[in-house]
Amino acid sequence: MAPLDILYQDEHLVAVHKPSGLLVHRSALARGETQFLVQQLRDQLGQRVYPVHRLDRPTSGVMVLALSAGVAARLSEAFSERQVEKRYLAVVRGKAPAQARLDYPLREEDGTRPKAEMPAMPATTDIHRLDSVELPVQVDRYPSARYSLVEARPLTGRRHQIRRHLSRRGYPIIGDAKHGKSIHNRFFAEQLGAPRLLLAATHLAFDHPLLAVRLTISCSLDDTMSALLGHLGWAGHLPLDSVQALPLDAASALQTP
Q1: What CATH number is associated with residue 184?
Q2: Range(s) of the domain holding residue 14
Q3: Which superkingdom (predicted)?
Q4: I want to staple 84 with a disulfide (CB 3.0 to 4.6 A). Which of 75, 132, 176, 206 is the partner?
C-alpha cells in the first residue's frame, strides 16, 4: 500500500490525506478488515498516533491525528466544542440552492440501539453551490440530468451529517449507497469513472493546542474526483494542498468582521 500523503507535521500532531475506502481504526463493525489509517500511519511514522475526529470510510480528505495522549485530549475537546472550522466538497444530484442553512435534527447512528430509540440531536450545515451542470442524457425520468458542486460547512458533528442533510433537502450526494439514489450512482460509476462517494474533506482550521498559531490546512482531491471535476467543467474549483500557520493575534484580526 502506498504511504499516506502527509500534509503537515510537527512534534505534536500530524495531518494526512485519508483515501476514500480506508477505515480510520478497528471497530466492531469492521470485522475481517486488515487496513486501517491509524495502524498504517503509526508504521509509517514509527510512533503511536491518536485520532481526534472521524471521517466516514468512503469520505476522503484531510484528517488530523495527535502524537501524544495530552495533545489528543486538547484536540478532541476543540472538535467537540465546535472550535474547528471544517469544509467539504460534494457532488450532488440536482441544482442545489446558491446558499442555504440545513437545520434538521438528526438521530445518532452508532449501532448500539435502533435509530428510532436514539434522541434527535440538533444539527446544522451551511451549504454553498459552487457550480452546476446539465448533462444531455436521460439518467432518471427526465431527458437531461442536473448535478451540482457544493461546499458544505458542518456547524455540528453528527454522524453522516452532511450526507443526511443533503439527502433530506433533496440533493443527495452521488455515490451514497444509503442516502442517495442508485440509478445516479451507477451512471457516475459506469459512465463517468467515479464509483466512490463524492464527498471530500478539503479544509480544517483550528488553534494549535500547544503553539500560539492558528493552523489552516487545505487538501486536494484524489485522482477520481479531480478527473470528474475536470470532465464536468469544474476544474477551477479544485482545491490545492496548502498549510498556513498564523500567529493567533493575526488570525483573530483576520476573522474579525
Answers
A1: 3.30.2350.10
A2: 5-255
A3: Bacteria
A4: 206
